[in-house]
């Protein structure tokens, strides 16, 4: 018997050497999304995407700042593609790092080439950087330190959401 404790979208972003080893347990745990790094799945990404989908999860691919955006194109153009791209806007590994605005070129390139793609950004996102990300085309935001370190987290979350919603509304005009 399984018990549904949460109806929120739960995305697991894994920076591990063998992401395929985690598909089964995370699928059983009820995860909604499974995001792996392109740098660790160059040999088996097609099998990995198939397994993720077979467990009822949505596949996403992440890339580190130094990885060229072109490395995710085959995963987006495959017969069985990923459904989201996560552009790291800091070096993965720990929170509280400074946002890398030059990563917005990758977001803009993705948005231009794949207009309906979910594009997520992670790292250094907060009230002072959200407009850069949302106006570049990011529609999914990961914010840790800026929310959990805020005196009024709900206010920060509202501001982040509003920026993304405003940017999306502006792009539809």
UniProtKB/TrEMBL annotation:
Keywords, in A-Z order: Carbohydrate metabolism, Iron, Isomerase, Manganese, Metal-binding, Zinc
Catalytic activities: D-ribulose 5-phosphate = D-xylulose 5-phosphate
GO BP annotation list: carbohydrate derivative metabolic process; carbohydrate metabolic process; generation of precursor metabolites and energy; nicotinamide nucleotide metabolic process; purine nucleotide metabolic process
Listed Gene3D superfamilies: Aldolase class I
Superkingdom, natural source: Eukaryota
Cofactor requirements of the protein: Mn(2+); Zn(2+); Fe(2+)
GO molecular function: D-ribulose-phosphate 3-epimerase activity; metal ion binding
Top-tier EC class: isomerase
EC number(s) per entry: 5.1.3.1
CDD domains tied to this protein: RPE (cd00429)
Assigned protein family: Belongs to the ribulose-phosphate 3-epimerase family.
Reported function: Catalyzes the reversible epimerization of D-ribulose 5-phosphate to D-xylulose 5-phosphate.
Subunit: Homodimer.
PANTHER family listed in its UniProt record: RIBULOSE-5-PHOSPHATE-3-EPIMERASE (PTHR11749)
Protein name, UniProt field: ribulose-phosphate 3-epimerase
Organism: Sesamum radiatum (Black benniseed)
């Amino acid at each position: 018997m399984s018990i549904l404790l949460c109806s929120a979208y739960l995305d697991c972003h894994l920076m591990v050497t063998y992401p395929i080893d985690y598909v089964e347990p995370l699928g059983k745990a009820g995860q909604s999304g499974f995001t792996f790094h392109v740098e660790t799945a160059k040999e088996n990404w097609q099998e990995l995407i198939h397994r993720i989908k077979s467990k009822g999860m949505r596949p996403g691919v992440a890339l580190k700042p130094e990885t060229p955006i072109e490395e995710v194109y085959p995963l987006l153009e495959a017969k069985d593609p990923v459904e989201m791209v996560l552009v790291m806007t800091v070096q993965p590994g720990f929170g509280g790092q400074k946002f890398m605005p030059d990563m917005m070129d990758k977001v803009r390139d993705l948005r231009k080439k794949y207009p309906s793609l979910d594009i997520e950004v992670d790292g250094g996102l907060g009230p002072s950087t959200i407009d850069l990300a949302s106006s570049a085309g990011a529609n999914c935001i990961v914010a840790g330190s800026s929310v959990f370190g805020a005196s009024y987290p709900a206010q920060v979350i509202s501001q982040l959401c509003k920026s993304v919603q405003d940017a999306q509304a502006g792009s539809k005009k």
